[in-house]
Specification:
Layout: H1 17-27, H2 36-60, H3 66-87, H4 97-120, H5 123-130, H6 133-145, H7 151-168, H8 177-199, H9 205-224, H10 234-260, H11 263-269, H12 273-285, H13 291-309
Helix pairs in contact: 2-10, 2-12, 3-9, 3-10, 4-8, 4-9, 5-8, 5-12, 5-13, 6-7, 6-8, 7-13
């Protein structure tokens, strides 16, 4: 067990040899009896939650920026989590506060980039770029865990980045900040999943969500002052509640799915989110059903699937 303040984890969440050894031990823990059917139902709930969050996020950002959105989302979520904790007391003291803080920072950055991307590129493009998250996990694992990166893994990562090129179509259409946001949010979510796996070995889902909403309320409040704080109008309060509730439900559904089946089983299920979000984008925002987006997403999916077949688990991260 890693104690707070112990060498290997500091206030900024740095990792050392002790943490790397423990994470490698986590990888050796066998998965209990799996229930893929129930996991699929939970993943369906997660996909619906993500889709509703995207629609609500676009509606909110007609008035608020992403930092303000994250502040209100986290504040509403915090009160909701506090009510749950009061009704059902749980252990809230985190085993490793540094890990929690680092996890929340990466999640906050990734989520802000995701909300920004919602406004500047089609929903299907954003989701396709977000699907590169498992590839970033492979590339970041040697830096975070000290693992060896094989030539085969590099090849699969290269295939995944080829999928990014198909989605973004550089030279055919202008690349903008939305494409960069989509890629960087995937990096943030990759770091998030590496940290979440370690945290969930010792702390409950409710503990993680409670401190996530508390810390991200503070992050959002501080950063929202940058451009001048804007109070939401009555017209978007309902959308703020939707974003807050779907954020928590998506986290819970994903965590529940991962508790019922291995990540290698759960991860491919999330790719059903692309056709769902593409159809929603076409219906609500008249976004074109771009065949290059689906083709690029298929290449990214193939890279992740090959990685699974090679024996490398592909994680799914809470958003």
């Amino acid at each position: 067990m890693v104690k707070p303040g112990r060498k290997g984890i500091d206030a900024a969440g740095g990792t050392g040899a002790t943490l790397r050894r423990q994470w490698k031990q986590d990888a050796d823990v066998t998965q209990p009896d799996t229930q893929p059917g129930r996991a699929a139902l939970w993943m369906g709930g997660a996909i619906l939650s993500f889709t509703a969050m995207a629609v609500a996020g676009r509606a909110i950002q007609s008035e608020l920026d992403s930092f303000e959105l994250m502040f209100w989302r986290s504040l509403i979520g915090f009160f909701f989590m506090a009510a749950i904790v009061l009704a059902r007391p749980v252990r809230l003291r985190p085993t490793s506060p540094g890990l929690h803080l680092t996890r929340h920072m990466f999640h906050f950055a990734g989520q802000n980039l995701w909300f920004y991307g919602l406004m500047v590129i089609p929903l299907s493009q954003l989701v396709a770029l977000e699907f590169t998250m498992p590839i970033w996990v492979v590339l970041l694992a040697p830096l975070v865990l000290g693992e060896r990166l094989t030539t085969r893994q590099l090849g699969y990562a290269g295939l995944g980045f080829a999928g990014i090129l198909v989605v973004a179509q550089p030279g055919v259409q202008p690349l903008g900040s939305g494409h960069l946001a989509g890629i960087l949010c995937a990096v943030g979510f990759a770091m998030n999943v590496l940290l979440t796996k370690r945290i969930m070995r010792h702390d409950s889902i409710l503990c993680v969500l409670f401190w996530m909403t508390a810390s991200q309320t503070l992050f959002g409040l501080i950063l929202a002052q940058w451009g001048g704080f804007t109070w939401p109008s009555p017209a978007i309060w309902g959308w703020l509640v939707v974003v807050a509730m779907t954020g928590l439900s998506a986290h819970y559904a994903l965590s529940s799915a991962l508790g019922l089946a291995p990540a290698s089983t759960v991860a491919p299920m999330e790719f059903f989110r692309l056709p769902v979000i593409a159809l929603v984008g076409a219906w609500l925002y008249a976004e074109a059903l771009d065949p290059f987006v689906f083709a690029g997403a298929a290449v990214i999916f193939l890279a992740n699937w090959l990685n699974i077949r090679a024996g490398r688990p592909v994680p799914v991260a809470p958003r």
